[in-house]
Amino acid sequence: MTEFSRRVEQVSISGIREVFEAAGEDAINLGLGQPDFPTPEHAREGAIEAIRAGEADEYTSNKGTESLREAISHRYAEDRGMEIDPNDVIATAGGSEALHIAMEAHVDPGQEVIFPDPGFVAYDALTHIAGGEPKPVPLREDLTMDPATVEDAITDDTAAFVVNSPGNPTGAVQSPEDMREFARIADEHDVLCISDEVYEHIVFEGEHRSPLEFAESDNVVVVGACSKTYSMTGWRLGWVTGSSRRVERMLRVHQYGQACATAAAQHAAEAALTGPQDPVDEMVESFEERRDVLLDGLDDIGLDCPTPRGAFYAMPEVPEGFVDEVIDRGVVVVPGEAFGEHGEGYARISYAVNVETLKEALSVMGDAYDAVS
Ligand code: PLP
């Protein structure tokens, strides 16, 4: 009999798919983690031109093309006033691979990784795959992660903690003060802060800041992606940035696991990053309008929901049996416990659907609520 590694046996395939299947084909899907907009035309053209010119046929540099890394660096400078050396960027197969190589390069077997609970499902799985011990921590009532909770959870065995703002599944945005605290904790305790900023541009209120701006040591690495910002989830293009020595270690994992991000996707990403940013503004405006429709609707139903200030998720508290009832009635939402033990009693609602569909789903949720309460 073939044996499997202990690391992989600790990970299971995400249960979210099963929810989609249970709801049937005609279901309204509020379970998806991707924007419902097309990839901007100029991004698609970037790839098409590169393919036609024969520029997408070969391996690129392991880190990605210089012009893509310059484009990523340029966006940080332009949008956030951050100075990122293009040599300290690795283009990856989405934010997912960036998280993976960050964990592999920094976590030894048995070391602990602290992350938000409820939190993005990959943090727990990637910690196991790196041989580490997941240390999920509960959130504040507004679903942000309290730096004090992270600091209390740090032990001699802690390798890293993950910050995710705006957050999946919560839509919560950490304050600049929190980000400054996360940087201080990374500095003072000499642990790595992995800041997952794939939703950085989808913010309605407050301001997105990065712990990288505040850290005095090199104990912060930042994960970014085109996936959500430019509605490019299928292109699989993200990146990780940090100090040169950290990038060099992550590159060792990337070089052997991936070689380089897909060349055509790199060209599309470069065009998205250097081209007009209006599609991003339009998408964010539309998400904000939908968020407001959703929050009003949940309030009318009688469901409490911390106001999500970014991303495209809301996480209301729901009565027992609500999620199953909603799914039985043909609307897919994801049970909070899919994102960690402290997610129990909540549901994640993705509002990456048009307003009409959202209103239809709200009416179903209202009926489901009446049926279970
Ligand atoms: N980080 C968070 C918080 C996410 O929600 C996701 C995708 O859902 C990712 C990272 C991975 O994104 P990508 O599609 O770029 O791999």
Automatic annotation (TrEMBL):
Keywords: Aminotransferase, Pyridoxal phosphate, Transferase. SUPFAM superfamilies: PLP-dependent transferases (SSF53383). Pfam families: Aminotran_1_2. Its cofactor is pyridoxal 5'-phosphate. The keyword Transport does not apply. GO terms for biological process: amino acid metabolic process. The keyword Transferase applies. One of its GO terms (molecular function) is pyridoxal phosphate binding. InterPro entries: Aminotransferase_I/II_large, AspAT/PAT-like, PyrdxlP-dep_Trfase, PyrdxlP-dep_Trfase_major. Belongs to the class-I pyridoxal-phosphate-dependent aminotransferase family. This is Aspartate aminotransferase. It comes from Halosimplex carlsbadense 2-9-1.
